Amino acid sequence: MAPRTPEPVRFGTDGWRGIIAREFTFQNVARVSQALALFLRDRRRRKLDLYRAWRAPYRGASHGVVIGYDTRFLSKEFAHEAGRVLAGNGVPVKVADRALPTPALSYAVEQHQAACGVMVTSSHNPAAYNGYKVKAEFGGSAPPAYTAAVEARLKRARHIQRSAGELETCDFTTPYLARLRELVDLDLLRGAKLRVVIDAMHGSGAGCLAEILKPLGVPFVEVRAKADPTFGGDSPEPTPQNLTPLKAVVRAQSKRAKAGELLIGVVTDGDADRVGGMDEHGEVLTSHACYSLILRHLVERGGTGRVVKSFALTDLADRIAERVGLEVDQVAIGFKHIAERMLNSDVLIGGEESGGIAVKGHVMERDGVLMALLLLEVAAKHGKPLGRVLAGLMDEFGQHHYARRDLHLEARLAVVERLLASPPMEVGGRAVVRVETLDGVKLRFARGWLMFRASGTEPLLRVYCEMDSPEAVDEVLAAAEELVHAPAPR
User: Fold this and answer.
1) pLDDT tens for each residue of 156-181
2) Using DSSP, how many helices (H) and how many strands (E) does the chain show?
3) Rounded to the nearest 10 degrees, what angle do helices 75-88 and 26-41 cross at?
4) For residues 18 and 133, is the Cβ–Cβ distance under 8 A?
5) Neighbours of 38 (CB within 10 A)
6) Mean pLDDT computed over 361-369
7) 3-class secondary structure for 316-375?
8) Could you report the per-residue pLDDT of 58-75, keeping only the tens digit for each?
9) By C-alpha distance, which of 126, 122, 115, 132 is closest to 60?
10) For labelling, which of 28, 270, 320, 417 has a CA lying 20 to 30 Å from the CA of 232?
11) What is the pLDDT of residue 257?
């Protein structure tokens, strides 16, 4: 019988992902790790154009690789398989001693001066998926030219070299938490009347916030803190439909809160690189609201630099940046594009619609744990619940309301191609005044916008909308669904 042909491996918006036991197999993890080893050992690598453009040190294979993993099925075993292959190729390896947040692995790249990092995670994807993220020398998501170079070596990676020896394990979590304590105003949090509900969504961020808040005397309750590779049956993404458990606990806590206490819910996704929030009434704070609140907070701290945002992120950030004279850069979807901007220019904050946010002075990578702490700082500094702080922000800069719908659609690419070829002139009775095509299709109205983009990791068509009222958002999204399912013109 002929040997089974390996499933193709392609790096997408942030790493390579696939369904466990179908695309994401030990065979493919070994192939990718062998290709990565070939890339790291290539003496010509230093001469690649991407290195000439970086403001970061080049580190050869002798600097080694740090490897981490999340709480998904077989993540630890996949991580060790990657480690055995890299070690078998003469690359020094250190593997995390426990499941950890992706930003902790990114910080370990810097702390250990590693050639790169490998994180076994599929982030926010459903439990059936796993993934392989590569973190370059600067700790952030490897840019497209880097992952393309690894992909190019897959054909030469058929002969796998593995080490039979024990791999060195290392505590990457403790130094990461120590770094977060340096970045947050602990005295401000200690002195505020906070009451926090923490939702880890059964992911690898569990316990991190609790470990920082407990010594400060900040009362907190943890939700979904136990590791569960099924994530309780939900996708570990901090979107409104997945936050019912958090909402229930926040509303229960609101009945117990003492007078003057600032109740806030914070949530991190499966690998804790994304953040979400919930106000004192159990209403979800969207990723757009979280980004805007943190941006304004950094400005009030005296922060300067560019404001970088993905194509699907709120216009509220533009209004805030314009007020204080900061430049705004809009980039395609995928944090690797934000990481490149942070690497090559002075960036205050970079973020994407999915809740991934990075800030100046830390790793060039999303960090849901740090962003959750900064949201607590916002409430503590203003002495108000986050819902009231956000309301004041919108009173000052205009109403910006947002929602997203994910439509399960195998023909998602065809729909986007159709809209690119023939954009509609109006949607839901609202005239389209401009069409933008940086990534997907964005239809701009006089007040607000609607965007269509095919997911790069799942059979989903993502439909994003921001308008000046929640009612307008619902109306436009309903019309957008009709547009998607309408017969294609002949």
Assistant:
1) 998 999 999 999 999 999 999 999 99
2) 16, 22
3) 40
4) no
5) 19
6) 95
7) HHHHHHHHHCCCEEEECCCHHHHHHHHHHCCEEEEECCCCEEEECCCCCCCCHHHHHHHH
8) 899 999 999 999 999 999
9) 115
10) 28
11) 81
